[in-house]
Structure formats: C-alpha cells, structure tokens
C-alpha cells in the first residue's frame, strides 16, 4: 500500500466536506498536503488524535452495508449462486480500515475542525519574517512590467528622431520657448545636406517656365518714379483697366434671369396653338396649289433636224479650236511674264515666312506673359502696382505701399504654372 | 499607368497614353486631393499642358511618368498614415475622450523633407539658383500676422523671421548685396552668392492683410519646403565662413526686435572666439559658453573694437573686386537712423556696404548724441534739433548711392525736399534706349568719381552742389566719354580695314562670316550713334583703301558686299537660329519705336511747359 506511514494533518478547509469513504478522504489529504496552501508548512499544524466515537461508527457501518446491497445486482437464486455472487470484499476492506484506524488513532473525517486545529499563539519570529518576505516578493511577470530607471524605453522611430533633435538643440541652442515650438516643424537643418555631392545622380531637369520667380517691376513702379517712366507705367495700368471696361461693354450680354411679360394660362396656350395650326393649313394649301401648276403645263418636245445637228457639231468644234488657240496664246503670254510670276511667288513666300515669324514671336511673348492653360480657369494677371499721380510724394514715410503681397506671390505661382488657377483666385 | 500594366483597350502611345488628368491621378495614387496637392508641391511636380488634350480643355493634366514618380515616394505612405491618425484623433474627440486625444496628438507621425531637398537640388549651386522664390516667400511670411483661421502659426512666422534674418546677416557680413529697388510693391534686393544672382522681394514695413482669394494651404505647403531648404542653405553658407550654424543670439536684443544687429554681434563674437580658440583647445560646450560670455562683454558703445574685428575678417578674405568695392563703400561713415525710417531694411543695407549704423531706441550701439556720426537718416518734413557735424538725409539717398556705387551729393536729399526720382537699377538703360535725365547726371558723377575728381565726401559736398563745379566735372566727364568713343571708333576702323583686305584677297566664306559676326558683335556693343559714326568712318576707310591699294581691283559696291556677306551668314546658320535672329530684330525695332514715342512725349511735355 502506498499510504504514508505518518498521517499528515488535514487542512482546515476540508473539514466541512462530507466524505464518502475514509480512503478517498485520505487520498485528498495526501494531495493537498503536497499542494500550495496559505498555511505553508504542515509540520507546524498540530493535530490531535481522538478516541473513537462508537455511535458514529455504527452509522457508518450501516451505510456501508446498504451501499453493498445496492451494488450487488447479479442473481442470487439457489445456494450456489448466492454464495458465488456475493463478494465480501467491501466488508473485508471495511474491517481492514477499521483496524487501521484503531491502530493509528481513529478516522479524522468526521472530527470537528476545532478539535483538529488550534491557533499557534506562541510568537515565532522566523515564521512571520518568512511570511512577510514571501509577501514582499514580486512576481517576475509583474517585475517585468515595472519601469527600470536604468533602462531606456525602446522608442518608435519617429520618437527617436525627435529625441535626437531635442538633445542637439539643448546642446547647441540656449534660446528659449520659440525654439521648442519650432521643433514641431519638420526639417532639422543641423547637418550639411550637400556634403558628399559626388554620389548624387544628376537627373535631367526640365525647365518649367520661362517666367522668372521674382519679376522686377518696371521703373515706373518705383516709390518715387521719374516722370516719363511713371507716365509709362500709368498708361499700362490705364490700358488694362480700359480693356476690362470695354470688354464688359462690348461683349455679349448675359442671358437675363427673368423675362418681362405676363404668365400665359394653360387654356390660353391651347388657343395659341390653334392659331398656329390655322396658319399652317393655309401654307399647305398654297403649296398644294403651286404643285398643281407644273402638272398642268403642256409637255412639248421639239424634233432636232439633221441640219440642226450638223450645225451644233460644227459649232462645238469651232469653240474647241478657239479655246485651244486661246490657251496657247495665254501660255505664251505667261512665259513672257515669267519674271513677274516668279516675283509674285517670292512675295508670297516672304509673306508666309513673315506670318510664321510673327506667330513664333507672338507665342513666345504669350508664354512670357502668362502660363499655358492648365485647367478650367484662365489665369488673370494681377493689376500693376503703381502710384497715382497725386499719391506721388517722394517720401518713403508717406508711401502707400502694397499690403497684399501674399496675393502677388500666389499670382506668381499661378503665372509660372506651379498652381492651377482656381475659381476663387480668378474671381469668376 | 505603366506600360506592362495597361488594359487591352487603352492607348499605348501618344498624348492619351502620356498624360492623365488630375482626378485619374488622385484615384491611381489612392489619396485625397489635398494630400495629392501637397505631395506634388513637395516633390516639385507640376501640371503640364499636352499638345492634345484628350479629355477636354477643362481638365488639368499630369505626365504619367511624374505620377509614377510620386507613386514610389515613401512619403506617400507617411501622408496616408497621418490621415489615418487624424481620423483616430477625430473619433476620440467626438467620443469626448480627451485623454486619448491629448495622448494621440503628442505622438503624431511626422515626416522630414531633408531627403526631398537633396533630391530636388542635388548640388548646392542648384539650390542657390532656385532660391528667389524661396527667399521671397520666407521674407513675406516673416511679415505676416499669425491668423488662426488660415492656420498660419505663430511658431512658423517666428521661424521665417529667424531664417530671413540669418540670411540677411550672412549677406550683410560677406558684402554680397548688389542692387536694391524700392517699388510700390516692396523692396527688391539682388545679391551675388557663389556666382549666382539671386533676387528677392520683401514687403514694406506695413501691416500686411490676408486677401481671401488666396489658397493658404498651398502657400503654407510651399513655405514648409522653402523653410527646410533655406535652413540647409544657411547652414552651408555659415559653414563656409566658419560660423556655427544655429547662431546664438542675445535674447535681450531679440526681444527688442533687433535680430540683425544681434546676429552681427554674434559674428563678431564668434570671430573673436575663434582667435581665442586657436590658442587653447577647448570642448565645444565650453567654447559656446565662452562665446555667450564674450557677446555680453562686447562693449556696446565701443565701435572701434568692432570695426577692427570686421576689418580683420575682411583682410583675410580673398574676394572679387566688386565685393571689395562694396565692403569699402561706406567705410568711414557712421549712420544714425531716426524713428520713422524703415529700420530693418537699412540695418541690412548699410552694414552690407561697410557702414556702421545705429538707431533710435533701446539696445542701439551708440546714441544720437555721438559726435562721430556723419549721416543721420531722417524722413520727416522738418528737423528741429540739428547737429552741425552731420548730414541729415532721406533714406532714399542710401539706396541710390548703393545702386550706382557713387557717393551722391546730399543736398538734393536733404530734409524736407522732394528727392530726385528713385531709378530702378534693374533696367538696362542702354538696351532700353531711353535714359532718364537723372541717370545721365549720375553717370557723369560716376565717371568723375572714377577719375577721382570728386572732392572728399566729408568736406566738399557743398561744393559739389555748386552748378559751376558740377559743370567742370561734367566737362571732364564728357571729355572722357569722347576719348572713349574715339578709341572705339579706331578699333572699328581697324577691323573694317582688315575685313576689306580679306575680301580682296578672296578668302573663303567662313572667314568672312566670322569677321562679319565679329562686326555684328561690335555693333551691338556700341551705341546706336556710335554705330552710325562707324559707318561714316567705314566709308572713309574705304576711301583710304582705294587710295592706298590703287593697283588692285576696287570693289564694286561695298555696301552691297556687306549686305551679301550678311545674307550669306544668315543662309549658313540653322533655320532655328535664323528665326531667332529675325525675332530679335523685330524686338529691337519695337524697342526703338518705343523709345521714339517716349522722346516725342518728352518733347511735347517740354513744349507745353515752355508755352505755359
């Protein structure tokens, strides 16, 4: 039998449980003694053996026998079978257990817990210390989650960059708050970007626009311009304005949103239609009359006589000959006037050439003045910033300068074709 | 779409295959329109105009290859991530989960444009070449108000201010400024950095308004890229003059909005520190500390020390002649700016030409009462309290002097007078044909200055105002001009003779063509009247030729021959070039007509004034 010789005391938590058999209870006790329990060492628990309780035991036996009867299900007819089919194993076992209990001090399964355990009130420091120590002990999984001051947290790549930047700034720059804000703007600019230029593959770059990024205004737009150039610039500005005015005046008028007149009722509409139909009928009648006439016309054909035929043929031939002679004559005339023709051709060529040239020049100038059409809306150039004659004071202090330079830069972007003109910017 | 992935029904070549519309591109890239716009701007991809607009005239077209280029951009994915993230934040916000919103906002995915800058500008020179727009934009935003509605952040404006001041400080320090022009729109500056001419426009010191018909999202995207670009450019430029890049600025001066002065002080301190550092090698942090200390110890009122430092640096550099000229232009002058003049601009321009400047207000290097000030810049009707030791001039004087590189007489620019016209230095008067009166006067002064006829600027400026004195100068200037003309004519004559000889010897067409080309070039260089003179001279020379080489066969008609040679050269050059030449001729003719018109107008105005 694999039972331990010294019976381990039973833990308190098992006392309330009603055991089916003592044996099972013992197995439980063995198991629990090996397991982890809040009360750590079994040797510290003191158990008290008790005298047997006879009454309890009797009840126990009775129950056992009842159960035995239930278990035996086989037939007991006849003496042979009666003898053969009743096993005495249970009883034997019971008695064995009983003797064992008697030897060892009795079953503990039905003993009350107060009788089994008592609180150890003697002060044992080492035990207490041990308990506290075990309480202090942090599980490994918990310790892993706790922060170690000596180990830097592993940052994501973005944070790393920020950190590095912050560090360099802290070292190199002792300026205050503004710079801290600036860090949010990307771009570190504390390195030499063009250090090793040899490794760069130079790609072909296409020239986007012939228009320079910063166009210098004409001299007439100076804050204190010379008289002639000022007049010049003014003339340009005025011409622009007048052009706009004329375009508004002479251009096609927009379709009006409302039309003057009364609203026509549904019923009146029918009348209108009826009038129209009448007219149509009359027209149709007229047409019918017209059609009728040619049918009535007498169809007459004239007979052609032989003489007439001959005459016609002769006439035809004569005309042919005449035409030929005329052609020859003209040809000879043209040959005579060959230099004139040559001159004419040359003139034409020249004209063509000039036209072509004009077109090229015009195209170039157009490209210089405004960008190619990039979208739905056409680029509208900003008006020239020029002082009026009465605003010309010559003093820098009294200058009425342009305060919408943002718009100017934006127009420049549009003009160079970097930004597509939009509805908002063209003001349509 | 790529060639291997084209549907069977689609076109394989031509405009239909090469270009796609914007909406197609947006669909293909699977992003929203705003993200597409942003990406296009950052990558530098812009719409094109195909010869044949397959989908109609009202669409915007992009080249397929451009779109494929965008498709392989890693930033596309980042932008998608950002969009997803924004959705998350929005969702948390609508659920009123403010903690989550806060936390999410803290760790938003970001991107950097460094790689894109490098990709678009493979070399530093490329970046410099394309800096015009960048500088204009940054300077503009530095002057804008922060508007929450248009999402213009305060931080961004401060950054623009910082970048623009750093750039100006570099230019001013290295004396690279060449031209300025005050127009109604703003102030134009032109500089020459590493052989590249860069022009930019800054707004006047006025309150800028934000018009509603501008798409600020687009502007801000451009600005975002330009800020990064300018940051790198500034870094490189500062490195080239041995300065640490993010400059450490005296915060007191910065609060007083005198960033430029603070930067110049930083430079000086840095120069001093470098001298110190050469003696004892110290760690970077230490040196920085030292630098900051130096900056504070730098005497504010003792300008001699400052000037010495500037000179030290100047002597070390080996620059071109123009930079040297610019450095010494305002050399012995000391300026003081009154309250009403544009301070930022003048603080940039005067030091760029070697002048020393102070202003009315806190933090200024020297006060108004300083006896060594030679010029005070004022812009008011009358000046009540005057120091006799200094000139009181209007700000325009500075700009005009700088543009024409001559110290102009100050009497026309004195307080309360209407100054002479401010001429644009960006106009080539010779090419335009029309020269304003004042430009001619300045030209004479320039010629006089070159000959050192001009009396010393400090003492004899009143003399310069005298008409007689000026007349003398003019006479001399005219003499010089006449001599110049003579020399030119002699050259032309000699060339013409050579040409004649060549013709007589009967050399081949090519040589003749070359010679005629040379002649053409000469003709372009010389003035119109000089040309006419040359013609006259030419006929004289022709007579000479006939006289000397009588035994040889005289040419039948020289003019005819010259014309023939011209025609021959025209025939020999390619069609494209010929047409260009002809177009140029047309343009020139137009210009001439314009000049004629102007002259006529002038004459009419004069007559009207006379009759009055």
UniProtKB/TrEMBL annotation, chain A:
Region ranges (Disordered): 1-53, 65-90, 150-190, 275-297
Keyword Transmembrane helix among record annotations: no
Coiled-coil stretches: 306-334
Keywords: Coiled coil, Nucleus, Ribosome biogenesis
Basic residues: compositionally biased ranges: 71-82, 159-168
Extent of Pro residues compositional bias: 1-11
One annotated Gene Ontology cellular component of this protein: nucleoplasm
Predominant subcellular localization, coarse grouping: nucleus
GO biological process, one term: ribosomal large subunit assembly
Compositional bias segments (type: Low complexity): 37-46
Family matches, as Pfam families: Nop53 (PF07767)
InterPro entries: Nop53/GLTSCR2
Signal peptide: none
PANTHER family associated with the record: GLIOMA SUPPRESSOR CANDIDATE REGION GENE 2, RIBOSOME BIOGENESIS PROTEIN NOP53
Family, as annotated: Belongs to the NOP53 family.
Function: May play a role in ribosome biogenesis.
Official protein name in the record: Ribosome biogenesis protein NOP53
Origin organism lineage: Eukaryota, Viridiplantae, Streptophyta, Embryophyta, Tracheophyta
UniProtKB/TrEMBL annotation, chain B:
PROSITE patterns, A to Z: BRCT
SUPFAM superfamilies given in the database record: BRCT domain
Region named Disordered: 518-565
Localization of this protein: Nucleus, Nucleolus; Nucleus, Nucleoplasm
A cellular component term, taken from the record's GO annotations: nucleoplasm
CDD domains according to UniProt: BRCT_pescadillo_like
GO molecular function, one term: ribonucleoprotein complex binding
Chief localisation class: nucleus
Alphabetical list of PANTHER family matching this protein: PESCADILLO - RELATED (PTHR12221), PESCADILLO HOMOLOG (PTHR12221:SF6)
Protein name: Pescadillo homolog
